[in-house]
From TrEMBL:
NCBIfam families: SsuA_fam (TIGR01728). The lineage of its organism: Bacteria, Bacillati, Actinomycetota, Actinomycetes, Kitasatosporales. This is Aliphatic sulfonate ABC transporter substrate-binding protein. It comes from the Bacteria. InterPro entries: ABC_SsuA_sub-bd (IPR010067), NrtA/CpmA_ABC-bd_dom (IPR044527). It comes from Streptantibioticus ferralitis.
Length: 347
């Protein structure tokens, strides 16, 4: 069903792990002794970063121990989910779609949204002054087949550029570069721009790049899913109480972020510092954080659109996404909080 999955990085190694959180003293253990969640050290994963830093997940889990694993890219996180190394993960839409299709709808479910926006095309202003100047230039994305790679390929196709989706060669050269090294590649002149998530986009701007296109301007209402919450179907079936507890932590984390944006920004940076050894400078952190909107709604209609973009780019063949969502527990949590349910858009 999928083209180029091997090149998408299945088998790549995760980023630094994290020490398990101590179970709440006196807290009731749920049906599992522990649960392991995966996430990225990206601003687009602010829900997970804040929830971990503020202890909001462990509070809901009580005596069930929370373990974590940070990843550099979606394909390796999906592989970990499939292998049982993690149970629940924060992840972008394209890897979630790929994982669901590759397993013939057997391995994962999307159970909540997490974030919208936070993606931009940033360029060297000396070489690219308008979208018409992209021809012949080198533009980076984080990984073949990842969410930003699909978005760039779809955009270029819509503008009439001819591209080979697998090699990245064409009217515009698409370079697949890890987010961690993209700023260096930009400084050294190896690339002319990048279609990347936060904080990489703001890091490039801090090094002299200019935002040429904010991806949210391409979407109706300015919203599109950039981060979902997924769960192993096996874990969901065996431990729905644990999954519900993690979702309460997710919903509470998003509510806290919205109510305390300044503190939330610092909590995100504290968690990033713990993972990488250094915090983001204010000039990068402030714009990056403002460009991301946390949301419990999975924005399911935009997932369908992103799958269509992958098909058009030649990275997917007619994916059947029926059943990819199970929002039962999320809507239970939202109802308990006095909030309306969210939709799976028929998926």
């Amino acid at each position: 069903m999928l083209l180029g999955l091997a090149a998408c990085g299945y088998g790549s190694q995760p980023a630094n792990g994290a020490a398990p959180a101590a179970p709440s003293a006196g807290g009731k253990k749920l049906s599992a002794g522990s649960v392991t969640i995966g996430y990225f050290a990206n601003i687009t994963h602010a829900t997970a970063l804040v929830g971990l830093q503020k202890g909001l997940f462990q509070k809901e889990l009580g005596g069930t121990q929370l373990k974590t694993q940070a990843f550099n890219a979606g394909p390796s996180e999906i592989e970990a989910l499939n292998a049982g190394a993690i149970d629940i993960g924060w992840i972008g839409p394209s890897p979630a779609i790929n994982g669901y299709v590759k397993s013939h709808s057997q391995n994962l479910k999307i159970i909540a949204g997490s974030a919208s926006g936070g993606v931009a095309l940033v360029v060297n202003p000396d070489k690219i002054k308008s979208l018409d100047d992209l021809r012949g230039k080198k533009i980076a994305t984080p990984q073949l087949g990842n969410t930003q790679d699909v978005a760039l390929l779809d955009y270029l196709a819509a503008k009439g550029f001819k591209e080979d989706s697998q090699t990245g060669k064409g009217d515009v050269t698409v370079e697949r570069i890890d987010n961690k090294t993209t700023p260096i590649a930009f400084q050294q002149g190896q690339i002319d721009g990048a279609w990347v998530p936060e904080p990489t986009a703001s890091q490039l701007v801090a090094k002299g790049a200019r935002t040429l296109l904010d991806e949210k301007t391409l979407w109706r209402g300015g919203q599109f899913v950039i981060t979902n919450v997924v769960v192993s179907q096996k874990f969901l079936k065996e431990h729905p109480d644990v999954v519900e507890a993690v979702l309460r932590g997710s919903v509470n984390s998003n509510a806290w972020i919205k109510a305390n944006p300044g503190q939330a920004e610092q909590a995100v940076n504290a968690q990033l510092q713990r993972l990488s050894g250094k915090p983001l400078p204010t000039g990068v952190l402030d714009p990056a954080f403002k460009n991301v909107q946390v949301t419990d709604d999975p924005l399911a209609s935009t997932l369908r659109a992103e799958a269509d973009h992958a098909v058009q780019a030649g990275l997917l063949k007619s994916p059947d996404l029926k059943g990819i969502y199970d929002l039962t527990l999320l809507n239970k949590v939202l109802k308990a909080a006095g909030r309306p349910p969210v939709s799976d858009a028929g998926l």
